[in-house]
Amino acid sequence: MSAIFQNYARYPLTFVKGEGARLTEADGRTFLDFGCGISVVNLGHCHPHVTQAIQKQAETLIHTSNLYHNPIQEQLADRLSRCGFGGDLFFCNSGAEANEAALKIARIYGNKKYEGKRNRVITLQNSFHGRTYMTLSATGQEKVKKGFEPTMDCFVHIKQNDFGEFLSEVKKGDVAAVMLELIQGEGGLELISRDFLVEVSEYCAKYDILLILDEIQTGFGRTGDIFAYKHFGITPDIITMAKGIANGIPMGAVMARREVAEYLSAGTHGSTFGGGYLACAAAMAVLDVMTERGFMQDVREKGDYFIGKLNEIFYQTEVTVHGTALMSGIKVPGKQKEFIEKCMNNNLIVIPAGNDVIRIYPPLTVTYEELDEGLALIKKSAAEMGIGE
């Protein structure tokens, strides 16, 4: 047995090479990858422009620490700020770290501005925000917390889209922030209601409650825009991001309104590796590609096509189609594990989520021919299970 912790239930696959939408095992067997490392390699494996940027930076400088100015980090922050709502950026190494930083901002904001009287954070049932102690406490899934109790008691989990329950909590006067996923990736691709989000956003703005949007999985083109909140016509106080930000190089970030970001003053938070040269170079290259004219429109069109075809395949079956754009999936009641294994046997990679949902995340650079190939493999896998016959 390997000396590695046994905390992962791994599939019996070992990949040695990736290119675009393809992964290859040591024996030469090739798979169509519609998982993208859980929405990380959104530009596909080893994208040439990103690879070139990584190689060039690795030959120049990789690390100095955040004790010193880092020009590429500052350039990246400016670009991301312009892609978002003009906020300031903090860089870290993962989505959990980004959410941890956002929650620390909420805590220090409530303590300093409201003399400690605002210390609770509202999140949603079935949400997922990470596996650090604070972020698993914020997560609205008991299975994530099992064995780690007692968790932090400053979080309350409400039903998604239940504005009445939201009001009953915030009217207690001790809520510093609300943290929401616009699509619950780990929770089964449940899309938040526009009306609920707008009502929450307006209430938070009126009563100075921080609105934190967890865009770890929805960010960087997965829903057809750099950030998913742009589809809803609202402006948050804080967004968190990671996964697709650097196409596989570990990186996370927090964007916050300047008046909020100022609460994390010198010495209140930090990261040894956060915003390092290599990760920033990769992220800059990702933005080069994603901000090209027509790129996001192309993603939206591919997403509409793909989801439309999924609906055709599973019309009048027990399977339901979830998600939006290329953040898509299917709910296969009681047959999730079997369906994923069938897809693997047919050389297609898809990934599990909660509530019997299978996430299907093609790279944003996928071709229509590859989408059709993936759809054929999905249909074949379903037929082998007696679905849709």
CATH superfamily of the largest domain: Type I PLP-dependent aspartate aminotransferase-like (Major domain)
As laid out across the biggest beta sheet, the strand order is: 4-12-11-10-7-5-6
Query: What is the terminal separation in angstroms?
Result: 43 Å
Taken in chain order, the helices and strands follow as: EEEHHHEHEHHEHEEEHEEEHHHEEHEEEH
The shape, in one word, is globular
Task: Provide mean pLDDT, rounded.
Answer: 97
Question: So, CATH architecture of the largest domain?
Answer: 3-Layer(aba) Sandwich
Radius of gyration: 21 Å
Indicate the percent of residues in helices. Answer: 25-40%
Low-confidence stretches: none
Instruction: Provide the structure class.
Output: alpha/beta
**Name of the level-1 CATH class of the largest domain:** Alpha Beta
Show the helix and strand layout.
Elements: E1 15-19, E2 22-25, E3 30-33, H1 36-39, H2 48-58, H3 71-83, E4 88-92, H4 95-113, E5 120-124, H5 133-138, H6 142-145, E6 155-158, H7 163-170, E7 175-181, E8 183-184, E9 190-191, H8 194-207, E10 210-214, E11 238-241, E12 252-256, H9 258-261, H10 277-290, H11 295-313, E13 320-324, E14 327-331, H12 336-345, E15 348-349, E16 351-352, E17 357-360, H13 368-384
Helix pairs in contact: 2-10, 3-10, 11-13
